[in-house]
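Usage example:
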Amino acid sequence: MVRVVQFLFVTKTIWAVVLALLVGSILMLSAGVNPLYAYASLFGGAFFDYYGFGATLVKFSPILLAGLAVAIPLRGGLFNVGAEGQIYMGALFCAIAALYLPEFYWPLHLLVCALAGALGGAFWAAIAGYLKAYRGINEVIVTLLLNYVGINIVSYAAGGPMIEEGAPYPYSPEIPSSLFLPHIMLPTDAHAGALVGVLLAVILAFVLKYTTFGFALTTVGSNPQAAKYAGIHVQRQMVVTMALGGALAGLGGAFEILGVKYRLFHMFSPGYGFDGIVVAFMAGANPILVPIAALFFSGLRSGAQFMQRASGVDSTVIDAIQGLVVIFVAASLAIRFGESRWGKLLAQRRALDDQLTPLEKKNA
Amino acid sequence: MLDWMILGDVLRTSLRLMVPIAFAALGGVICERSGVYNVGIEGMMLSGAFGAALGTFLTGSPVAGVMVGILLGAFGGAILAVLSIRLNVNQIVAGIAINLVALGLTAFLARLIFGLDATTKTLAGFTAWAIPGLSAIPFVGPIFFNQDPLVYVLYLLVPFLHWLLYRSAFGLEIRATGENPGAADSAGVPVYRVRFLCTVISGGLAGLGGAYIVVSQVFVFTEHMSAGKGFIALAAIILGRWDPVSTLLASWFFGFCDALQMNLQFANPSVPYQIFTALPYVASILALVGLYGRVKPPAATGLPYRRESKT
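Running the assembly step on the lines above writes:
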């Protein structure tokens, strides 16, 4: 019995998701659509259809990297709400490297472009990290504000100095085709960025757990005082942690250019950076779980189109369901086993058992 | 470059553009002063806009619409309050979740209720109402005193909030709760209740800001019509240093940037308008950096309060 209840609690995130989907089905019913059919077409389209899964992977890459960009600073005690802006700055730096550097040996050139993207994101995040570490300014506010500055800078660049001649709306010329990221599921748009993202998630999980750098990062997050006594340069570590997060988001932005868009568009991200916050949160800031949460969310995003086509229920319902998922997951994480009614009852029983055991021993 | 005619025009427009930001930001001031970050302002504005459209659509009266708008905004505030105050969910995450739900739900319900293209037929709304006497003052009159009723509500709201925050007992409780909830609690201030109430008020005011967009500016509900104004309001709170009067001025500055940006796009396309779209955010960051030491958020904002915790 205890096992069962504890199992239910360990998997509470999943129950929260199920609950959110149930509430979503009420919305669908109110629109006169059979929710079972709608969900079947949603998940069938997102995960069990070759083309649909390709579309899911296209969204998976930026959402995963944005999720990591939030999760890593979170482990270091910093809240990066600026993944969206970092995606834009990464895309900008990457596009500049791709368009204005002379073409050379392509794998190297591709690497340089991707790294330029990472650099752009890292630079944007490091501003917030620096202000936090050395000036004590709340990083939540700064990263949030920098989002809009970044979006506007890209909008200016794509519509001004970098615009393609005669373009009907702001976008840059196309990058050289040698720089296109390899596709992994032809003929869909799914590109290698998704694989790189998963690889990075595994590497980061390893780094956090087994390296001195990871130790420094997480110790500053959990106990800055102890970190200082352990000889960690706390302030520098904060800037580095933030920059690492930004680099991941910037890489996500670079992959959007190199893998999907091939040009710098203004307003190209439909809020991937904000999805990243949600994903990191669902994964409990654990890099290994981030890809799973990211896959679920990108599936919801791309499956929404299938659902709309198949069942006629409007795809906007998915936005609502996404929000509900976050609310329920957040609420479920707040409920701790030990403090819940069940936990207390079971604790009482255990205490009673402890009282009884000496009696039993005596009697025996 | 700008002659008086254009300046007057830009100022008048800036005032109209300021109003939704100002309502939302003033609510945010109350909320953050009590120790809760309201990142959900954007979603609450959107709920308010939807509520205003719904109320006006059903009753034909914009006043009823505004009421429904405030109510729905306050409901969003109550959800944030339950999540962040009762359940100790991270305030930022809870706010973002509310934004997501509001975005999806309003778009979905709008299509369900108003019809396929989600744009309602033009709704009844407020029109400009000149205050006799004051509106006759040259230059200033037509700008400030020939506006619609909700603008005058804003004029009255600012001194009221100033009084509430600095002169009333409740204001003292709010500020104490935001600076040091532990101390406030031991002095007998009902910390949870104060924060709950402030968050609900903030939601209601954000809803009013959203309602203004519908009943005074565009007279229809469109998907995601708040379009980031909630986040600008967050910036206005910072630039306004968590003070009602300064926040109003900051909102006006942002409204002015927006009006200038719109004017420039038409009049002088060679100047990149993005400078003025980004200016509010840059100004807020610079305000945080430059006025460091003098500009500090309330000490306990963003931190959940638990009675038993030792910190």
